[in-house]
Amino acid sequence: MLKSWNLRLGAFASKPLLAAAAGVAMQFAVAGQAGAASSSACVPLGSDAELSLNDVTFLDVPPENAGDRNQRLGFAPDGVPSDARLLTIWPDGPFTQLLDIASSDAGVVAGTNRRIHIPDLLRNKDAWVVAGIRIDPGAPGLSDKMTKEFGRSPQVRLIVQPVSLQNDDPVAASTPADAKVKVHDIAVHLVFSFIAGVTFQDGEDPRMFLPSFVPDDEAFTPVVRAIADLKRDLADGQLVAETCVDTGGQLRIHPGLANLRTAEAVRARLREVLNEHLKPTQLQAMAIMGLPNSMPEPWIFLATNFSRSEGKYVPFANPNAGGGMAQMLSFLDTPQVQPIPLNDNLGPVSRNLGKPARSGVSTARLFGDNASPTEDITKVGKEIAEIVADPEKSHFFNTDCVSCHTETSRVIEKKLGASFPQIDAAVLPDSQWNVRNLGWFKTTFGPPMPTKPTITERTARETEEVAEYLNSHSPYQEVVSQAFTQ
Q1: Strand 187-193 with 153-165, pairing
Q2: Mean local confidence (pLDDT), 409-430
Q3: Full DSSP string of 317-345
Q4: Rounded Cα gap, residues 282 and 270, in angstroms
Q5: Closest alpha carbon to 132 in 29, 198, 62
Q6: At a CB cut-off of 8 Å and minimum separation 6, what does 309 contact?
Q7: What percentage of the chain has pLDDT greater than the value 70?
Q8: At 197, which helix (H) or strand (E)?
Q9: CB within 8 A of 481, min separation 6: which ones?
Q10: pTM for this model (two decimals)
Protein backbone atom coordinates (compact mmCIF):
# COMPACT_ATOMS: atom_id res chain seq x y z
CA MET A 1 0.00 0.00 0.00
CA LEU A 2 1.24 3.50 -0.77
CA LYS A 3 2.09 5.46 2.34
CA SER A 4 0.43 8.73 3.21
CA TRP A 5 2.99 11.52 3.52
CA ASN A 6 3.37 15.22 4.15
CA LEU A 7 5.63 17.90 2.74
CA ARG A 8 8.84 17.17 4.62
CA LEU A 9 11.10 20.01 5.59
CA GLY A 10 14.77 19.37 5.16
CA ALA A 11 17.94 20.00 3.24
CA PHE A 12 16.52 20.16 -0.29
CA ALA A 13 16.93 23.90 -0.63
CA SER A 14 20.60 23.75 0.32
CA LYS A 15 21.39 21.67 -2.75
CA PRO A 16 21.66 23.40 -6.12
CA LEU A 17 19.16 22.32 -8.74
CA LEU A 18 20.31 20.55 -11.87
CA ALA A 19 22.18 22.74 -14.32
CA ALA A 20 20.92 22.93 -17.88
CA ALA A 21 23.57 20.60 -19.24
CA ALA A 22 22.92 18.08 -16.51
CA GLY A 23 19.21 18.28 -17.28
CA VAL A 24 19.82 17.41 -20.92
CA ALA A 25 22.09 14.54 -19.96
CA MET A 26 19.53 13.26 -17.48
CA GLN A 27 16.74 13.36 -20.04
CA PHE A 28 18.66 11.32 -22.57
CA ALA A 29 19.89 8.92 -19.91
CA VAL A 30 16.35 8.26 -18.75
CA ALA A 31 15.12 7.83 -22.30
CA GLY A 32 17.85 5.38 -23.14
CA GLN A 33 17.96 3.09 -20.15
CA ALA A 34 14.55 2.96 -18.49
CA GLY A 35 13.49 -0.54 -17.66
CA ALA A 36 14.79 -2.62 -20.55
CA ALA A 37 15.31 -6.30 -19.69
CA SER A 38 15.06 -9.77 -21.16
CA SER A 39 11.57 -11.24 -21.10
CA SER A 40 12.98 -14.13 -19.07
CA ALA A 41 13.83 -11.64 -16.32
CA CYS A 42 10.32 -10.21 -16.17
CA VAL A 43 8.42 -10.79 -12.95
CA PRO A 44 4.64 -11.08 -13.53
CA LEU A 45 2.49 -8.98 -11.23
CA GLY A 46 0.60 -10.87 -8.56
CA SER A 47 -2.90 -10.34 -7.22
CA ASP A 48 -1.45 -8.26 -4.38
CA ALA A 49 0.16 -5.75 -6.79
CA GLU A 50 -1.20 -2.22 -6.80
CA LEU A 51 -1.34 0.78 -9.08
CA SER A 52 1.60 3.12 -8.58
CA LEU A 53 1.87 6.88 -8.94
CA ASN A 54 3.04 6.69 -12.56
CA ASP A 55 0.08 4.47 -13.47
CA VAL A 56 -2.44 7.27 -12.87
CA THR A 57 -0.37 10.35 -13.80
CA PHE A 58 1.37 10.20 -17.19
CA LEU A 59 4.03 12.73 -18.21
CA ASP A 60 5.47 12.35 -21.70
CA VAL A 61 9.01 13.23 -22.82
CA PRO A 62 9.28 16.83 -24.10
CA PRO A 63 9.86 16.88 -27.87
CA GLU A 64 13.17 18.39 -28.99
CA ASN A 65 12.77 17.99 -32.76
CA ALA A 66 10.09 17.47 -35.40
CA GLY A 67 10.49 13.70 -35.28
CA ASP A 68 9.79 13.72 -31.54
CA ARG A 69 6.86 16.04 -31.93
CA ASN A 70 5.22 13.88 -34.59
CA GLN A 71 5.38 10.89 -32.26
CA ARG A 72 3.37 12.63 -29.53
CA LEU A 73 -0.39 12.24 -29.23
CA GLY A 74 -2.06 14.92 -31.32
CA PHE A 75 -5.62 15.77 -32.34
CA ALA A 76 -7.50 15.02 -35.55
CA PRO A 77 -9.57 17.70 -37.29
CA ASP A 78 -13.27 16.91 -37.52
CA GLY A 79 -14.04 14.42 -40.27
CA VAL A 80 -10.45 13.20 -40.61
CA PRO A 81 -9.93 9.53 -39.65
CA SER A 82 -7.59 9.02 -36.73
CA ASP A 83 -4.16 7.55 -37.28
CA ALA A 84 -1.75 6.08 -34.74
CA ARG A 85 -0.93 9.53 -33.35
CA LEU A 86 -4.24 11.39 -33.47
CA LEU A 87 -7.08 11.63 -30.99
CA THR A 88 -10.67 12.30 -32.04
CA ILE A 89 -11.94 13.56 -28.66
CA TRP A 90 -11.44 17.36 -29.00
CA PRO A 91 -13.78 18.55 -31.76
CA ASP A 92 -13.16 21.72 -33.72
CA GLY A 93 -16.16 23.44 -32.09
CA PRO A 94 -14.97 23.31 -28.45
CA PHE A 95 -11.38 24.01 -29.56
CA THR A 96 -12.45 27.20 -31.34
CA GLN A 97 -14.79 28.22 -28.53
CA LEU A 98 -11.99 28.03 -25.95
CA LEU A 99 -9.61 30.15 -28.01
CA ASP A 100 -12.34 32.67 -28.80
CA ILE A 101 -13.25 33.00 -25.11
CA ALA A 102 -9.58 33.43 -24.19
CA SER A 103 -9.22 36.15 -26.82
CA SER A 104 -12.38 37.95 -25.69
CA ASP A 105 -12.83 40.35 -22.79
CA ALA A 106 -13.07 37.29 -20.53
CA GLY A 107 -9.32 36.93 -21.02
CA VAL A 108 -8.64 40.45 -19.72
CA VAL A 109 -7.42 40.67 -16.12
CA ALA A 110 -9.75 43.01 -14.23
CA GLY A 111 -8.28 46.43 -13.52
CA THR A 112 -5.46 46.00 -16.04
CA ASN A 113 -4.90 46.04 -19.80
CA ARG A 114 -3.32 42.57 -19.67
CA ARG A 115 -5.09 40.02 -21.81
CA ILE A 116 -4.51 36.62 -23.38
CA HIS A 117 -3.39 36.63 -27.00
CA ILE A 118 -3.67 33.52 -29.17
CA PRO A 119 -1.23 33.62 -32.13
CA ASP A 120 -2.66 32.51 -35.48
CA LEU A 121 -0.27 29.54 -35.49
CA LEU A 122 -1.92 28.13 -32.37
CA ARG A 123 -5.43 28.40 -33.80
CA ASN A 124 -4.61 25.29 -35.79
CA LYS A 125 -5.47 22.26 -33.67
CA ASP A 126 -2.64 20.34 -35.31
CA ALA A 127 -0.18 22.51 -33.34
CA TRP A 128 -1.31 20.96 -30.03
CA VAL A 129 -0.09 17.69 -28.49
CA VAL A 130 -0.63 15.85 -25.22
CA ALA A 131 2.01 16.51 -22.55
CA GLY A 132 0.31 14.74 -19.68
CA ILE A 133 -2.70 12.64 -18.62
CA ARG A 134 -4.39 12.44 -15.22
CA ILE A 135 -6.73 9.64 -14.14
CA ASP A 136 -9.00 10.62 -11.22
CA PRO A 137 -11.95 8.64 -9.79
CA GLY A 138 -13.32 11.58 -7.83
CA ALA A 139 -12.78 15.29 -8.42
CA PRO A 140 -12.59 17.65 -6.64
CA GLY A 141 -11.19 15.36 -3.91
CA LEU A 142 -11.36 11.86 -2.45
CA SER A 143 -11.22 12.38 1.31
CA ASP A 144 -14.33 11.42 3.26
CA LYS A 145 -15.30 15.02 3.95
CA MET A 146 -14.88 15.95 0.29
CA THR A 147 -16.96 13.07 -1.09
CA LYS A 148 -19.64 13.64 1.54
CA GLU A 149 -20.09 17.22 0.34
CA PHE A 150 -19.29 17.00 -3.39
CA GLY A 151 -19.93 13.36 -4.22
CA ARG A 152 -17.48 12.13 -6.86
CA SER A 153 -16.86 13.24 -10.42
CA PRO A 154 -14.56 10.68 -12.07
CA GLN A 155 -12.40 12.41 -14.65
CA VAL A 156 -9.71 11.97 -17.25
CA ARG A 157 -7.77 15.21 -17.64
CA LEU A 158 -5.40 15.96 -20.49
CA ILE A 159 -2.67 18.60 -20.38
CA VAL A 160 -2.06 19.77 -23.95
CA GLN A 161 0.53 22.23 -25.24
CA PRO A 162 1.41 23.74 -28.62
CA VAL A 163 4.67 22.85 -30.35
CA SER A 164 6.10 24.58 -33.42
CA LEU A 165 9.39 24.97 -35.23
CA GLN A 166 11.85 27.39 -33.62
CA ASN A 167 10.82 30.14 -36.08
CA ASP A 168 7.14 29.61 -35.14
CA ASP A 169 6.32 27.86 -38.42
CA PRO A 170 4.09 24.80 -38.02
CA VAL A 171 5.58 21.32 -37.97
CA ALA A 172 4.50 19.59 -41.19
CA ALA A 173 4.70 16.00 -42.35
CA SER A 174 7.48 17.07 -44.71
CA THR A 175 9.51 18.79 -41.99
CA PRO A 176 12.92 17.10 -41.53
CA ALA A 177 12.86 14.92 -38.43
CA ASP A 178 15.89 16.63 -36.92
CA ALA A 179 14.44 20.15 -37.23
CA LYS A 180 14.43 21.76 -33.77
CA VAL A 181 11.06 22.59 -32.24
CA LYS A 182 9.79 24.97 -29.57
CA VAL A 183 7.34 24.11 -26.81
CA HIS A 184 5.26 27.23 -26.23
CA ASP A 185 4.68 28.53 -22.71
CA ILE A 186 0.95 27.98 -23.07
CA ALA A 187 -1.14 25.11 -21.79
CA VAL A 188 -4.73 23.86 -21.91
CA HIS A 189 -6.41 21.44 -19.53
CA LEU A 190 -9.21 19.29 -21.00
CA VAL A 191 -11.54 17.79 -18.38
CA PHE A 192 -13.59 14.75 -19.38
CA SER A 193 -16.13 13.84 -16.70
CA PHE A 194 -17.92 10.55 -16.02
CA ILE A 195 -21.08 11.71 -14.23
CA ALA A 196 -24.39 9.83 -13.99
CA GLY A 197 -26.22 12.82 -12.51
CA VAL A 198 -26.14 15.69 -10.03
CA THR A 199 -28.14 16.49 -6.92
CA PHE A 200 -28.91 19.54 -4.80
CA GLN A 201 -30.14 19.73 -1.23
CA ASP A 202 -33.50 21.31 -0.50
CA GLY A 203 -33.21 25.08 -0.52
CA GLU A 204 -29.96 25.22 -2.49
CA ASP A 205 -30.01 27.74 -5.32
CA PRO A 206 -28.18 26.22 -8.34
CA ARG A 207 -26.97 29.72 -9.21
CA MET A 208 -25.04 29.85 -5.92
CA PHE A 209 -24.32 26.21 -5.10
CA LEU A 210 -22.30 23.61 -6.92
CA PRO A 211 -24.08 20.27 -7.27
CA SER A 212 -23.14 17.03 -5.59
CA PHE A 213 -21.91 14.66 -8.31
CA VAL A 214 -23.19 11.13 -8.87
CA PRO A 215 -20.33 9.10 -10.40
CA ASP A 216 -20.77 6.93 -13.47
CA ASP A 217 -18.56 4.14 -12.18
CA GLU A 218 -19.81 1.73 -14.83
CA ALA A 219 -18.35 3.93 -17.58
CA PHE A 220 -15.17 4.85 -15.69
CA THR A 221 -14.21 1.36 -14.50
CA PRO A 222 -13.02 0.27 -17.99
CA VAL A 223 -10.57 3.20 -17.96
CA VAL A 224 -9.12 1.95 -14.67
CA ARG A 225 -8.93 -1.59 -16.06
CA ALA A 226 -7.10 -0.26 -19.13
CA ILE A 227 -4.38 1.48 -17.12
CA ALA A 228 -3.99 -1.62 -14.94
CA ASP A 229 -3.62 -3.74 -18.08
CA LEU A 230 -0.96 -1.34 -19.35
CA LYS A 231 1.00 -1.63 -16.11
CA ARG A 232 0.80 -5.44 -16.30
CA ASP A 233 1.82 -5.62 -19.95
CA LEU A 234 4.81 -3.34 -19.34
CA ALA A 235 5.90 -5.30 -16.28
CA ASP A 236 5.86 -8.74 -17.85
CA GLY A 237 7.09 -7.81 -21.32
CA GLN A 238 3.80 -8.38 -23.16
CA LEU A 239 3.58 -4.88 -24.63
CA VAL A 240 6.98 -5.08 -26.34
CA ALA A 241 8.77 -8.41 -26.51
CA GLU A 242 11.89 -8.78 -24.36
CA THR A 243 11.32 -5.41 -22.68
CA CYS A 244 10.11 -5.20 -19.09
CA VAL A 245 9.30 -1.82 -17.55
CA ASP A 246 8.60 -1.16 -13.87
CA THR A 247 6.28 1.82 -13.40
CA GLY A 248 6.77 2.00 -9.64
CA GLY A 249 8.80 4.54 -7.70
CA GLN A 250 8.81 8.30 -7.75
CA LEU A 251 6.68 10.40 -10.06
CA ARG A 252 8.66 11.19 -13.18
CA ILE A 253 8.37 10.99 -16.93
CA HIS A 254 6.33 7.82 -17.34
CA PRO A 255 8.83 4.93 -17.48
CA GLY A 256 7.09 3.38 -20.49
CA LEU A 257 7.27 6.68 -22.38
CA ALA A 258 10.87 7.32 -21.35
CA ASN A 259 11.94 3.92 -22.65
CA LEU A 260 12.80 4.13 -26.36
CA ARG A 261 11.74 0.52 -26.91
CA THR A 262 8.26 0.91 -25.46
CA ALA A 263 7.34 4.58 -25.99
CA GLU A 264 5.60 4.10 -29.35
CA ALA A 265 3.57 1.16 -28.08
CA VAL A 266 2.57 3.00 -24.88
CA ARG A 267 1.36 6.03 -26.85
CA ALA A 268 -0.58 3.75 -29.20
CA ARG A 269 -2.24 2.04 -26.22
CA LEU A 270 -3.09 5.37 -24.60
CA ARG A 271 -4.51 6.69 -27.85
CA GLU A 272 -6.69 3.58 -28.12
CA VAL A 273 -7.93 3.92 -24.53
CA LEU A 274 -8.69 7.63 -24.83
CA ASN A 275 -10.47 7.34 -28.18
CA GLU A 276 -12.52 4.38 -26.95
CA HIS A 277 -13.59 5.70 -23.55
CA LEU A 278 -13.69 9.50 -23.90
CA LYS A 279 -16.51 11.18 -25.79
CA PRO A 280 -16.71 14.85 -26.80
CA THR A 281 -19.97 15.08 -24.83
CA GLN A 282 -17.96 14.35 -21.66
CA LEU A 283 -15.74 17.40 -22.17
CA GLN A 284 -17.23 19.28 -19.24
CA ALA A 285 -14.55 21.94 -18.76
CA MET A 286 -11.50 23.49 -20.40
CA ALA A 287 -8.93 25.84 -18.88
CA ILE A 288 -6.12 27.79 -20.47
CA MET A 289 -2.93 29.49 -19.31
CA GLY A 290 -1.94 32.05 -21.93
CA LEU A 291 0.29 35.06 -22.50
CA PRO A 292 -0.17 38.59 -23.87
CA ASN A 293 0.87 39.43 -27.42
CA SER A 294 4.63 39.00 -27.99
CA MET A 295 5.38 39.03 -24.26
CA PRO A 296 6.90 36.32 -22.04
CA GLU A 297 4.69 37.34 -19.10
CA PRO A 298 2.28 37.77 -17.36
CA TRP A 299 0.82 34.28 -17.20
CA ILE A 300 -2.95 34.56 -17.39
CA PHE A 301 -5.27 31.77 -16.20
CA LEU A 302 -8.85 31.34 -17.40
CA ALA A 303 -11.33 28.48 -16.91
CA THR A 304 -14.46 27.58 -18.86
CA ASN A 305 -17.25 25.08 -18.34
CA PHE A 306 -20.01 23.75 -20.55
CA SER A 307 -23.36 25.42 -19.94
CA ARG A 308 -26.18 23.02 -20.77
CA SER A 309 -28.72 25.84 -20.71
CA GLU A 310 -26.71 27.83 -23.28
CA GLY A 311 -25.40 24.83 -25.20
CA LYS A 312 -21.85 26.16 -25.26
CA TYR A 313 -18.73 26.75 -23.18
CA VAL A 314 -18.75 29.86 -21.01
CA PRO A 315 -16.07 31.50 -18.84
CA PHE A 316 -16.13 30.47 -15.19
CA ALA A 317 -16.56 33.34 -12.73
CA ASN A 318 -13.99 32.32 -10.14
CA PRO A 319 -14.90 33.26 -6.54
CA ASN A 320 -11.29 32.65 -5.53
CA ALA A 321 -10.27 35.53 -7.83
CA GLY A 322 -12.86 37.95 -6.46
CA GLY A 323 -15.52 36.73 -8.88
CA GLY A 324 -13.39 37.68 -11.88
CA MET A 325 -12.69 35.36 -14.77
CA ALA A 326 -8.99 35.80 -15.56
CA GLN A 327 -6.15 35.83 -13.02
CA MET A 328 -2.52 36.68 -13.69
CA LEU A 329 0.95 36.29 -12.28
CA SER A 330 3.30 39.09 -13.32
CA PHE A 331 6.74 39.85 -11.96
CA LEU A 332 6.52 43.25 -13.67
CA ASP A 333 3.37 44.47 -11.92
CA THR A 334 2.34 45.42 -8.41
CA PRO A 335 0.79 43.41 -6.92
CA GLN A 336 2.29 40.48 -8.76
CA VAL A 337 -0.85 38.34 -8.43
CA GLN A 338 -4.06 39.98 -9.67
CA PRO A 339 -6.87 39.92 -8.70
CA ILE A 340 -5.87 39.30 -5.10
CA PRO A 341 -7.08 35.78 -4.21
CA LEU A 342 -10.08 35.28 -1.94
CA ASN A 343 -9.51 31.63 -1.15
CA ASP A 344 -11.56 29.49 1.21
CA ASN A 345 -9.16 26.60 1.86
CA LEU A 346 -9.20 27.12 5.63
CA GLY A 347 -12.97 27.09 5.88
CA PRO A 348 -15.37 24.15 6.07
CA VAL A 349 -15.79 22.11 2.89
CA SER A 350 -18.66 23.77 1.06
CA ARG A 351 -20.37 23.83 -2.34
CA ASN A 352 -21.64 27.36 -1.69
CA LEU A 353 -19.74 29.59 -4.09
CA GLY A 354 -21.52 32.68 -2.82
CA LYS A 355 -20.77 32.36 0.88
CA PRO A 356 -19.99 35.84 2.25
CA ALA A 357 -17.25 34.81 4.67
CA ARG A 358 -14.19 33.15 3.12
CA SER A 359 -11.12 31.99 5.02
CA GLY A 360 -8.00 30.89 3.19
CA VAL A 361 -4.39 31.33 2.15
CA SER A 362 -2.66 31.75 -1.20
CA THR A 363 0.84 31.91 -2.60
CA ALA A 364 0.27 35.60 -3.41
CA ARG A 365 1.87 36.32 -0.03
CA LEU A 366 5.06 34.74 -1.31
CA PHE A 367 5.43 37.09 -4.27
CA GLY A 368 6.99 40.56 -4.16
CA ASP A 369 6.64 42.41 -0.87
CA ASN A 370 3.28 40.96 0.11
CA ALA A 371 4.58 39.40 3.32
CA SER A 372 4.43 41.53 6.46
CA PRO A 373 7.86 42.67 7.77
CA THR A 374 7.02 41.00 11.09
CA GLU A 375 6.30 37.62 9.53
CA ASP A 376 8.70 34.72 9.58
CA ILE A 377 8.50 34.16 5.81
CA THR A 378 10.08 30.70 6.07
CA LYS A 379 7.46 29.53 8.55
CA VAL A 380 4.57 31.26 6.78
CA GLY A 381 5.72 30.09 3.37
CA LYS A 382 5.95 26.47 4.47
CA GLU A 383 2.47 26.62 5.97
CA ILE A 384 0.97 28.17 2.85
CA ALA A 385 2.64 25.65 0.55
CA GLU A 386 1.47 22.79 2.76
CA ILE A 387 -2.15 23.96 2.70
CA VAL A 388 -2.25 24.64 -1.05
CA ALA A 389 -0.66 21.27 -1.87
CA ASP A 390 -3.05 19.33 0.39
CA PRO A 391 -6.01 17.95 -1.65
CA GLU A 392 -8.02 17.52 1.55
CA LYS A 393 -7.94 21.30 2.05
CA SER A 394 -7.44 22.94 -1.34
CA HIS A 395 -9.19 22.28 -4.64
CA PHE A 396 -10.32 24.07 -7.79
CA PHE A 397 -13.43 25.55 -6.19
CA ASN A 398 -11.74 27.09 -3.12
CA THR A 399 -8.19 27.95 -4.24
CA ASP A 400 -6.97 30.32 -6.95
CA CYS A 401 -5.19 29.09 -10.08
CA VAL A 402 -1.89 30.92 -9.44
CA SER A 403 -1.55 29.26 -6.02
CA CYS A 404 -2.10 25.76 -7.39
CA HIS A 405 0.48 26.38 -10.12
CA THR A 406 3.20 27.98 -7.97
CA GLU A 407 3.26 26.32 -4.54
CA THR A 408 6.31 24.18 -5.37
CA SER A 409 8.27 26.77 -7.34
CA ARG A 410 7.76 29.33 -4.54
CA VAL A 411 9.14 26.92 -1.93
CA ILE A 412 12.19 26.24 -4.10
CA GLU A 413 12.74 29.82 -5.28
CA LYS A 414 12.54 31.26 -1.77
CA LYS A 415 14.70 28.47 -0.34
CA LEU A 416 12.13 27.64 2.31
CA GLY A 417 13.72 24.24 2.91
CA ALA A 418 11.58 21.35 1.75
CA SER A 419 12.06 17.90 0.27
CA PHE A 420 9.72 16.22 -2.19
CA PRO A 421 10.15 12.49 -1.61
CA GLN A 422 7.54 11.34 -4.13
CA ILE A 423 8.93 13.37 -7.06
CA ASP A 424 12.09 12.71 -9.07
CA ALA A 425 14.31 15.78 -8.73
CA ALA A 426 14.72 15.90 -12.52
CA VAL A 427 11.09 16.99 -12.95
CA LEU A 428 10.81 19.55 -10.14
CA PRO A 429 10.32 23.15 -11.37
CA ASP A 430 13.69 24.93 -11.34
CA SER A 431 12.53 28.40 -12.33
CA GLN A 432 10.12 30.94 -10.86
CA TRP A 433 8.76 31.38 -14.40
CA ASN A 434 7.67 27.75 -14.64
CA VAL A 435 3.94 27.63 -13.84
CA ARG A 436 3.33 24.07 -15.03
CA ASN A 437 2.06 21.63 -12.41
CA LEU A 438 2.23 18.80 -14.95
CA GLY A 439 3.71 19.41 -18.37
CA TRP A 440 6.59 21.01 -20.23
CA PHE A 441 8.23 24.41 -19.73
CA LYS A 442 10.47 26.19 -22.21
CA THR A 443 11.79 29.47 -20.84
CA THR A 444 12.04 32.52 -23.08
CA PHE A 445 14.30 34.28 -20.59
CA GLY A 446 18.09 34.28 -20.80
CA PRO A 447 20.22 31.79 -22.76
CA PRO A 448 18.61 28.78 -24.50
CA MET A 449 17.64 26.05 -22.05
CA PRO A 450 16.30 22.53 -22.58
CA THR A 451 12.57 22.02 -22.29
CA LYS A 452 11.79 21.15 -18.68
CA PRO A 453 9.44 18.25 -17.85
CA THR A 454 7.62 19.32 -14.70
CA ILE A 455 5.67 17.78 -11.82
CA THR A 456 4.77 19.66 -8.64
CA GLU A 457 3.99 18.73 -5.06
CA ARG A 458 0.28 19.33 -5.46
CA THR A 459 0.18 17.00 -8.47
CA ALA A 460 2.03 14.37 -6.44
CA ARG A 461 -0.37 14.68 -3.50
CA GLU A 462 -3.41 14.34 -5.73
CA THR A 463 -1.80 11.42 -7.54
CA GLU A 464 -1.14 9.55 -4.32
CA GLU A 465 -4.71 10.11 -3.20
CA VAL A 466 -5.96 8.72 -6.51
CA ALA A 467 -3.74 5.62 -6.42
CA GLU A 468 -4.74 4.91 -2.82
CA TYR A 469 -8.41 5.16 -3.69
CA LEU A 470 -8.26 2.95 -6.78
CA ASN A 471 -6.29 0.31 -4.85
CA SER A 472 -8.75 0.17 -1.96
CA HIS A 473 -12.28 1.05 -3.08
CA SER A 474 -14.90 -0.87 -5.05
CA PRO A 475 -15.47 -1.31 -7.91
CA TYR A 476 -11.94 -0.28 -8.86
CA GLN A 477 -9.99 -2.47 -6.45
CA GLU A 478 -11.54 -5.59 -7.96
CA VAL A 479 -10.76 -4.75 -11.60
CA VAL A 480 -7.18 -3.82 -10.71
CA SER A 481 -6.69 -7.16 -8.97
CA GLN A 482 -8.26 -9.00 -11.91
CA ALA A 483 -5.91 -7.31 -14.37
CA PHE A 484 -2.85 -8.37 -12.39
CA THR A 485 -3.88 -12.02 -12.15
CA GLN A 486 -4.41 -12.54 -15.89
Answers
A1: antiparallel
A2: 93
A3: --GGGTT-SEEEE-TTSSSSEESPP---T
A4: 18
A5: 62
A6: none
A7: 88
A8: strand 195-199
A9: 47
A10: 0.90
